[in-house]
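user: can you give me the structure for this one chain? C-alpha cells are fine.
assistant: on it. calling the predictor now.
[tool input]
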Amino acid sequence: MLLKKGSKGEDVKKLQEKLGLTADGDFGAGTESKVKEWQLANGLTADGVVGDGTWSKMFGGEIIKEDVVIPTGGVFKLEKLKGHIPDAVIAQIPDTAKKFNITTPLRLAHFLAQCGHESGNFKAVSENLNYSADGLKKIFPKYFPGNLSESYAKNPEKIASKVYGSRMGNGDETTKEGYKFRGRGFLQTTGKDNYTKFTKFIGEDCVANPDLVSTKYPLASAAFFFESNKLWSICDKGADVETVTAVTKRVNGGTIGIEHRLQEFKKIYSLLS
C-alpha cells in the first residue's frame, strides 16, 4: 500500500471518505493536508504519505495489496502441525494469518512449505555469510574479481557490506549497512528499503533494531513478503505442481529445491485439510 499526492483510484476514494473529504479519487494537496493532520493526531510521522502503517491504523488492520481483498478469519487445524512445524512457529500463525490475509489452508500450506524450505525447517533466521575465498568467487563472482576474495573470506561483516552496499537502500560499503540489513527472517528480508517498509507496517522500528526481524518477526516478515508481492493470488490457484512451482519462482527466483518444497506442501496441506 502506497498512496501519495498524484495517486488516483478506489483506494484514494476510500481514504477521502474516511477523512471526511469529497471522494473524487484524486489525491491532491487537500487530501495530503488532511492525511498529515490525521497522522499527527494519531502519533504517526506526518509525511502525508499513506503507507501500510497509516492504512492499517486508519482501517483497523485491513490490508489491501492483492487485487481482491478476502476477509480474514480462517480457521486452521493447527494442532495437526505439531511434530512437523516447531511449536514456536505454530504459536505465531494465528496473529500472522490475521494480519496478512492467510485465510485458507491452501494459502497457509503454500506459505509454510516455502518458509520451511528456505529456513532449513524454520531453524535459520539470519543469513549465513561465512564464505571461504573459493565460495565468494563462486557465489558472488562480480564482486570479487581476481584475488580480492582472499581479503574478505570468513568475514561476514565485510562480505555483506560489500555485496549489499549501495543497493536496496543501503549506504556504500564503508557504512556497513549491507551487514546491518542482511537477510533475516524465514524468507530473508534484506536491505534497508525492505526493513523500512516492514517497519511501517508492523509498527515497531526494525530499522533501528534489525534483529527484531529474526527474533520477534521471522514469520511475520515472511508473510509481509507474500502479501507485498501478491503471492496469495497465486497460491489460490490450487494444490498442483504448477502452482507450487509458480510460488517457488516468486520466492526463490528459480526452482531450486522444488522437490522438497513440493513434498513439504503436500504434507502440510494434507494435515490442514
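assistant: here you go. The chain is about 50% helix and 0% strand. The CA atoms of residues 117 and 257 lie 8 Å apart.
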